[in-house]
Write a structure and sequence with these properties.
The chain is of the alpha/beta class and 478 residues long. The chain is 33% helix and 22% strand. The site of 5'-deoxyadenosine (5AD) has 15 residues, from strand 16.
Length: 478
Amino acid sequence: MYDNNPTLDPHKPLDESQQGSVYFKNADAPGDPEKGTRHFYIESYGCAMNFSDSEIVASILGEVGFQPTRDMEIADLILINTCSIREKAEQNVRQRLRIFDQVKKRRKGTLVGVLGCMAERLKAKLMEEEKLVDMVLGPDAYRDLPKLVAEASQGEKGINVLLSREETYADISPMRLDSNGVVAFISIMRGCDNMCSFCVVPFTRGRERSRNAFSIIAEATDLYQRGYREVTLLGQNVDSYKWENPDSKEVVNFANLLEMVALVHPDLRIRFSTSHPKDITDEVLYTIKNHENICNYIHLPVQSGNSRVLKLMNRTYDREWYLERVKAIYRIIPDCAISADIITGFCSETEEEHQDTLSIMKESDYTMSYMFYYSERPGTLAARKYPDDIPLAVKKRRLQDVVDLQMEMSHANNKRDIGKTFKVLIEGNSKKSDQQFKGRSGQNKMVIFDKKENLKVGDYVQVKINSVTRATLLGEIV
Ligand code: 5AD
Ligand code: SF4
């Protein structure tokens, strides 16, 4: 997997260096925890939605007196928020559980819980066969956590993997974990109804449901007032966001919601993810165009560039439809950046069909992509209907073709930015030097530049680009 711009982007899995991020710094509850308070330690894997869920979990635990810690050795409760999207993600989790088990042996009474997508898939197996786990909670069951923790303290193992048609955690104000105090996620919907044939998400996260629009606006407003300057609206398919106001019966669609969030404050930047090519409307594109604070960046997973493969994948669009949407994006928002998710070696994919993926990448001119080889997931439509018949070596070689092309394209795309000036939100010190800041442009490219007096994290600056690498733009404040 290759990720040339390792930022926390929703829906898509995080790159390997980000996987397993440990949440510790709790911007909402600073200060030393009192002696005697209980501590929880949480690791999150997978997509940004999981990271966002961990903040909901933290808030629920905070209500019953738990404090976050980055040190698992002092934790009373160790949680792992898991991902099932590819086999490798699940293997990682099993390894981590063995490590937690050693802590448990050293520190009697420590409880271990498995949350998230693997919970639904592996339920009882995790608890009974492996004996490593005290509680298992699926993505819709987090309100039950305090109860299950209490029961587990009495030696009773607990499990709740029920999926809900209503749960959106709308009323829970997430405890911002590991936050720079400037950028945050807001979950706007849960689940997915799309049934792409390769994907396990509809099974692990359940049916699609949209969150109360007013609770989203309230969360964005609160974040702005506390100094945050960027929110990313998260959903598996944000374009199908739809919420009916029970009083007025008015329906809020995604374009309406984007506009409502954009109006919270001109200095609050809006990102969103993930868009679905079958659902992204011109209305959404015009809303982006009309609001300066909605970033000109769209993550538009293509998966494959070949119409036959797309049909097998049950993506419900073909190559022509996808390219028409890309054209519409560049027509309506000329400086928009587009990124994609791509899968190589899906069932029965031929070499020619693989070439179609390479050519659609070029035609779409992605600034970056998240690229994977196909990994069969038990229970999915593809696992039931189509043999996983592309040899691993071929899947990997095709992935390498895609990665090589994307690297070349990203570099060329970045070079075109030399001489241009971008509005950048300062997110922190650059990795290499505390004399330099890093931040992102509206197009979601990482920009590095020398500091100037009186500027701080959370400020906007205009940065002129002088040179580039494949992954970053280097510039100076103007
Ligand atoms: N194998 C490989 N990649 C997958 N994805 C989802 N399911 C699979 C799978 N079974 C990728 C898709 C999706 C992203 C989140 O993960 O590209 O958009
Ligand atoms: Fe999975 Fe498709 Fe839903 Fe994305 S849109 S979560 S790939 S089923």
